[in-house]
Amino acid sequence: MMGRDKSFYSRDAEMALLGGMILDAQNVLNDIVPKIKEDYFYFIENKKIYNTILKMYNNAEKIDIVTLKNRLKREQILDEIGGDDYLQKLVDQLDVLLNMDEYLKIVEENYVLRHLMNTAKIIGESCSSDMDVDSIIEKAENEIFSVREGRYKSDIIPVSEKIGEIKKMIDLYITRKEPVTGLPTGFMDLDRMTTGFQKGDFIVIAARPGVGKTSFALNILINQCVKTSPEQDKRRGLIFSLEMTSEQLIQRMLCSYANITGTALRQGMLKKEDMHNLSIAYQHFSQSEIYIDDSTKGTPLDIRAKSRRMVLDKKIDFIIIDYIQMMHLDKKVENKQVEISEISRSLKLLAKELHIPVIALAQLSRSTEKRKEKPILSDIRDSGSIEQDADVVIFIHRKFLKDSLLDEASLIISKQRNGPTGEIDIFFDASKTLFKEKVK
Asked: With bands split at pLDDT 50, 70 and 90, how would you rate the model's confidence at 358?
């Protein structure tokens, strides 16, 4: 098998790509500009020419060989790029417009290979330094992820370039008139108030132990990832379980879905109807894409690395972490509050970086029990900056009723950065770990 050219650049491809832009700017630039950056070009003269074309494009100026030459002359860089002769060479190439996608691919792949070579050098230097191994792995993954994720993505985006894209998005909202624009939870009143959990949002669901945090998270997983027919919109979810095993979580989800009590399942005391419901649950869950990690170290480093891989490999739509206070840092810190603050910040950045909702469960302090009132933001245990970093904070408040199959509960939206706060009444069936909406 022949190896690739070790130079990691192609002057011919760069020249052909620029030539096509100049010859047919009106038709090709709209497609090419979002996919390519100045750094993709290896040769300095080509970088300067593309940068000038980009300026003209952003100013909606007419671009051809005459206007480009005039602009380069005005900015006193025409001689630096090789003068009239070099520009003429760019447009004298035959049939460049037929192969623009191929030239773009060659230029972009060479840039990625150069970036990877530089990344390998950085990793090698890190290995020879005094950095600890986990930090070296984190740095390496950051570099690799930035290569893969940043291929068509610029770090700094002028608003002027984004207006067209945002207009299309808003036009779509108006055309569809859908009340839920983000990830639905499956609870209609909650979806109505939040319009779903949005991409890049950090959502905190908090409650005292035993109130139903995990059950609520699993209900969301079921509602979104387990569907009864192929036509339904099925999503992919990942849950990091720091407290329960995957077997425990799956059993609880099967009970909720099949409407079976956990006690009956464990004792094997199932009726014919239960067995039928369970067989349907097996079938639907086997066709779902729910992923569980119960082996995580519980560090932001580990969760971030695994999440990135799952987003790239499995196209995960959302992540759940059960729960924040069980997480810890690799380093020593002065107290738990400082640690939780750093963890909270890392989860917000993870949501933003992966552009998906990150839903983290949190435990409330005992102060809520002492007050015997509904929880408030400061009740989040070791809260630090959780309430500050979160885009949405939802409390689960439950009244434990004697001699009742269903407990009354409330979902309290205590904070929502882009929407209203308020309270939603709901029921909880503890025997089946299932939250149910109140029938209006």
From this structure: very high
The residue out of 103, 132, 149 marking a domain boundary is: 149
> What CATH number is associated with residue 198?
3.40.50.300
Contacts 24+ apart (CB under 8 A), 89-94: 89/15, 90/15, 90/18, 90/19, 90/22, 90/49, 91/19, 91/22, 91/23, 91/65, 92/19, 93/15, 93/16, 93/19
pLDDT tens track for 282-322: 888 888 888 988 876 788 878 887 888 888 888 899 999 98
Residue 47 binned pLDDT confidence (cut-offs 50, 70, 90)? very high
The structure tokens listed for 215 are 């059950």
Q: Is residue 56 part of a domain?
A: yes
219 and 360 belong to one structural domain: yes
Evaluate if residue 249 carries a pLDDT over 80: yes
Per annotation, catalytic residue among 45, 109, 143, 243? 243
Strand-pair category, 422-429 with 434-437: antiparallel
Q: Taking the CB of residue 421, how many other CB atoms lie within 10 A of it? A: 13
Mark 144-170 as b/e (b = at least 16 C-beta within 10 Å).
bbebeeebeeeeeeeeeeeeeeeeeee
The pLDDT value given to residue 377: 72
Domain residues for the domain of 331 are: 180-437
Catalytic annotation on 243?
yes
Report residue 145 as tokens: 């992820």
Residues 316 and 360 in one domain: yes
Mean pLDDT for all residues in the chain: 82
Q: What does 163-206 look like in DSSP terms, one character per residue?
A: HHHHHHHHHHHHHH--S--SB--S-HHHHHHHSSBPTT-EEEEE
pLDDT tens-digit readout, 333-347: 777 778 888 888 889
Return the percentage of the chain with pLDDT > 90, whole number.
Answer: 18
